[in-house]
Amino acid sequence: MTVEVLRYAAFTDDPASGNPAGVVPDAAQLTERDMLGIAAGVGYSETAFITKSDHQLRRYTVRYFSPRAEVPFCGHATVATAVEITRRTGPGELVFNTRAGQVPVHTAINDGRPWATLTSVPASSRPASPEEAGPALAALGWAPGDLDPRFPVHVAYAGNYHLMLAAATRARLADLDYDFDALAQLMAVHDWTTVHLFWTQDAARFHARDPFPPGGVVEDPATGAAAAAFGGYLRTLGRITAPTRLSVRQGEDLGRPSELLIDVDPADARIKVTGQAVPINQP
Q1: Is the C or the N end of the chain the one with fewer CB within 10 Å?
Q2: Pairwise CA distance, residues 155 & 149, whole Å
């Protein structure tokens, strides 16, 4: 059986930047074992598989696999998949049925390029316990003084769980050298998909890094699911008092800069995340 596997860079307009994602447009006949094997062969942090398509209603069932396991939701692979559908069928409203829930996606063509805006499942956030935060800091090699006290440590959710840690300085964020196995074990215990490390440039601009041991990679260059959870985290902290657009710069320290746009409405539990995606050496 021949399977079409496409490769995209998400949250960028440059194939050499952003976060690479695999996209399998027709995975209806694939088993879980097949999909995991394909994701491992692609080698990106995530590959999206469209297992059911209704082009007339523009509804799609999508599953996401890292090289190691299935995950309920992946933001950058969602953006990549939506852009591929837009290339084939034109812009408009899409609905993705995922293991995390229903995810509406709006696509548009701006300046000749497709953009996608995903709307997350309802986001939530809670303070992390000392048993969660302490071992995470130890695995990262961070001290409590490395944290920005304005942003308490939380566990945030918008389809997946992410630990939120605010770096006090950009230099602290840049100096990332962590214990991969220790962090992987801790994240497995708590069901965290990434640890979202961020630094505040100003009220609307942030820089982020996302260790991703559960996916078998040291770091994700752009993490749409974490960006959605981050928007919910800021809303929970009361830092969003009116509809606001935020930007997150991620991947710079990896040499794959990415730009994620987050729209947060304090009256809406769902978070919108917007970005571009471009093909990588498409066969």
Answers
A1: N
A2: 16
Secondary structure class of 155 (helix, strand, coil): strand
Predicted pLDDT at 283: 47
Q: How confident is the model at residue 216 (pLDDT cuts 50, 70, 90)?
A: confident
For the domain spanning 124-268, the CATH number is: 3.10.310.10
Q: For domain 6-121, which CATH number applies: 3.10.310.10, 1.25.40.390, 2.40.30.40, 2.70.98.10?
A: 3.10.310.10
Q: How far apart are CA 276 and CA 283, in angstroms?
A: 20
Rounded-to-integer distance, Cα 261 and Cα 231, Å: 10
